[in-house]
Amino acid sequence: MCLLLITRLRLVNQQKIQIAKRIETILDQLTANPAKGGHRDVELLRSLPGVGRIIAATMLAEASQPLAKRDYHALRAYGGIAPVTRQSGRKVLVQMRYACNPRLRNVLYHWSRISVQHDERSRQQYHRLRRSGHSHGRALRGVADRLLAMLIAMLKEQTLYDPERRRLGPPLGAAITESAIPS
Predict the structure, then answer these.
(1) CA 111 – CA 114 distance, rounded (Å)
(2) 50 has pLDDT over 90
(3) Assigned domain for 171 exists
(4) Residues 137 and 96: beta-carbon distance below 8 Å
(5) What is the Cα 40 distance to its own chain's centre?
């Protein structure tokens, strides 16, 4: 019985490696020649921290229209990042959006999780949200929201991610004093 499982696991692992290579080849082809049906967005998307082949391929496949239109609000609603507010009389309830594309929501969750691990600015925002009482998932959705805003800005300007550019402003959560405001 175990010998049968070992051969199946080897086959699955071999197929996983082949699929990973195929996805990488397709993304490289899209990046190589944007003039001939290629996709400039692939290079911009892959320059962001935490975006690998799986996240890039899924975002291009699942959210191609909002990305092409550079529509931040549609992208965050379609990906489940935008919260839903329900009001009735005196009560206001803000909940996670469940009516969304689950594959895109999953990819955005993992993108923000990996970004928190590798990008200082995302890590600062995550910790600031956690200190203010948000759950782990809500804090990651907050990080994903910021990453999506940054992605759309990069797509509109057609610029690659530059971590030094993000460090020009004050650190996240820092209070702006009057002496910091240019006159």
Answers:
(1) 5
(2) no
(3) no
(4) yes
(5) 17
